[in-house]
Amino acid sequence: MSAEAVQAQISTAIDALSALEHSAEQRDDHLAFLWEHSPQICWIADHEERVIGISKSWHELTGRPDEEVLGTGWRNFIHSDDSDRYLDALAEARRSGGSYDVRFRGLRQNGEWRWLRTRGYTRVNEEGRTAFIYGFTEDVHEQIKAETKLRSAIERSRLAGLATNDLIYDLDIPTGKISWNASIRDYCSDPAQASLDWWEETIHPADRAQTIASLDAFLHSAEGERWQAEYRMRRLDGAYSHVYERGYVVRGADGCATRMIGAITDLTPRIEAEARVKQLQSELIHVSRLSAMGAMAATLAHELNQPLAAANNWIGVARVLVQRAPEISGQAGDALEEARASIQRAGEIIRRIRAMLSRGGEKREIHDLRDIVDESLRLALLGSGVSGIACHRRLESARVRVDRVQIEQVVLNLVRNGIEAMIDRPRRELVVAVAPRETHAEVRISDSGKGIDPAFENTLFTPFMTSKEEGLGVGLSISRTIVEAHGGKIRAFANPEAGTTFAFTLPLVR
C-alpha cells in the first residue's frame, strides 16, 4: 500500500472520529437541555441509593437547594406514612433489576405536603448488581385531588343507588351500551345482558309499541332534555311491575342525543296501596250510610207504618163494602186503589233505603244533578213534616258524571245535619239549591239552625271530630272524600241571619 493510500485512510478515520465526537457532544448538549428544562425532576442515584445528580426542577418544585436532596437527604422529604411503601418499592426494583412507580407526599419549603409520583429505573453492571438508578419525579397533587373527588362522587352515586329501589341507568346512545345499578338484578340475573334490546323485550306487550315509539321520537327530536313514561316491566320472577321512567338526555352541539341518564321507579307498591285505600274508603262510606240509616230507623219505621196501616184500613173497607152490597163494587175498587197507592208509597221508601244501603262497586254515569238531589230529599225529609221543617227547593238542571248513590249520600248527610241543627229553633227552614256555573254545578244546603260551633269551625271535615253527643264524626269527612274524588270541592260558611250553608261543587258534563 502506498504512503498516499495510508494517509488517505488515516485522514478518513480522523474525520469519522471527529464526527463521532461532534455527535456525542451534540447528544450531550441535547440531554443537558432536556435535563435543565424538563418540568419533571430528573435525578440519578448510585448503587447505594445516594442521589448524585438532580435537575433544577427540584428547586422549582420544592423551593429547597440541591444540597438538601443530594446523598441520602432525599429521604427527609418523604412523608412518614408513605416512607415504608416508597422504600419497599425501591428495594423490590433493585432486587429484580427492574423499575418502580410509586406515589407519595413530599415536603415543600413552606411546610406544605404535596402528592408526587416517582418512576425509577435500575441499571445493572456486568455482575448483575445495581450500578445506577435513574428516575423522574412529578407533581400529581391536583390529579390526585381530582381522582379523590371522582371516587367520592362515584361512591356517593353507588350509595344512592343502594339507598333506593329505583333502577338507575346510563345509556351511551350512539353505541347502545347501557350500565345499571345493582337493582337491575331484580329484573335480570346477568346485568351484562341488560342491553337496550333486553329493556324493550321486558316491556309488557300492550305497552311496548307506544313506549318505544315515544322514546324514539324524543331522541330523534332536537328539543327537550327530559323524557318520561309509565308502562309495565317484567321482573325476574315473570310478574309485571307498574313502573315510571324519567330520563335526562345530553345532546351534542348539533342537537343530537348522545347520552341518557335515567331512573325507573316501581309504582306497584304505591298502586296496590292506593287500591287498598280506595277499598277502605268504599267500606267506610258504606258504614257511614249504615250509620245514617240507623239514625233514621225510628223515623223510617214511622213513615213505613203509615202507608201500610192505611193500606190495611182501605182493604178492610173494601171487604165490608163488597160483603154488604155487591152492587157498589166501584166504591170498593176505589178503596183498593187507595190501598195500592199506599203500598206503592211504602215500597218506594223501601227501594230508596235499599239503594242507599247497596254495597256495589263505584259506577259513574251521567245524571241530572237536579234529579239526584230531589231523590235524596225525599228520603232525607222523611218525618220532617212532623218536626215542622219547611223545605224550599230551587233546583236547576245540571248534567254531571257521578256515582249516583255516593252523591245521594252526601246530600243526605248534609240535609240531615241541617235538620238536626234546627230541632230546637223557633224558625225551621231548609233551602236546597242546585245551580250550574261556568264549569261546575253547585249544590247549596242552607239551614236556619244554631250555626257552627266556633270550637269545631276549623275541624268540620276532619275524621272523628263531632259536636254531637252520639255522632261518629265521619259524615262530613266522608262527604268531603266523595266530593273531592269526583273532582269537586266542599265548604261550609255561616249565613248572614242564622244557621249554616254547606256547599259543594261537581264538574259539569258538556
Entry keywords:
12 helices, 510 residues, 5 domains, Beta-Lactamase, alpha+beta, five-stranded antiparallel β-sheet, single chain
Write a structural description.
The protein has helices spanning 3-37, 57-62, 80-96, 141-163, 196-202, 205-220, 268-295, 297-324, 329-357, 369-380, 404-421, 475-485, and strands spanning 41-46, 51-54, 99-107, 113-124, 130-139, 167-172, 177-180, 226-234, 240-251, 257-266, 364-368, 390-395, 399-403, 429-436, 440-447, 490-494, 500-507. With 510 residues, it is of the alpha+beta class. Helix 7 (268-295) crosses helix 12 (475-485), helix 10 (369-380) crosses helix 11 (404-421) and helix 11 (404-421) runs antiparallel to helix 12 (475-485). It folds into 5 domains: 9-34; 39-144, 2-Layer Sandwich (Beta-Lactamase); 164-266, PAS domain (Beta-Lactamase, 2-Layer Sandwich), CATH 3.30.450.20; 270-361, no CATH class; 363-510, 2-Layer Sandwich (Heat Shock Protein 90), CATH 3.30.565. The radius of gyration is 47 Å and the shape is rod-shaped. Strands 2-1-5-4-3 form a 5-stranded antiparallel sheet, with helices on both faces. Strands 7-6-10-9-8 form a 5-stranded antiparallel sheet. The termini are far apart. The protein is built from 12 helices and 17 strands. A hairpin with a 4-residue loop joins strand 1 and strand 2.
User: What is the CATH fold-level name of the largest domain?
Assistant: Heat Shock Protein 90
**Strand-residue proportion:** 15-25%
Q: Strands of the biggest beta sheet: in what spatial order?
A: 2-1-5-4-3
User: What integer value in Å does the Rg equal?
Assistant: 47 Å
* Global geometry: rod-shaped
> Any low-confidence stretches, pLDDT <50, length ≥5?
469-473
Q: Class of the largest domain, according to the CATH hierarchy? A: Alpha Beta
CATH architectural name of the largest domain: 2-Layer Sandwich
**Count of distinct structural domains:** 5
What is the quaternary state of this protein? single chain
Structural class, from helix and strand content? alpha+beta
Q: Write the CATH homologous superfamily of the largest domain.
A: Histidine kinase-like ATPase, C-terminal domain
Give the SSE order as H and E letters: HEEHHEEEHEEHHEEEHHHEHEEHEEHEE
Which percent range fits the helix content?
40-55%
Q: Give the strand tally.
A: 17
Largest sheet: 5 strands, antiparallel
**Through-space gap between termini:** 125 Å
Count of helical regions: 12
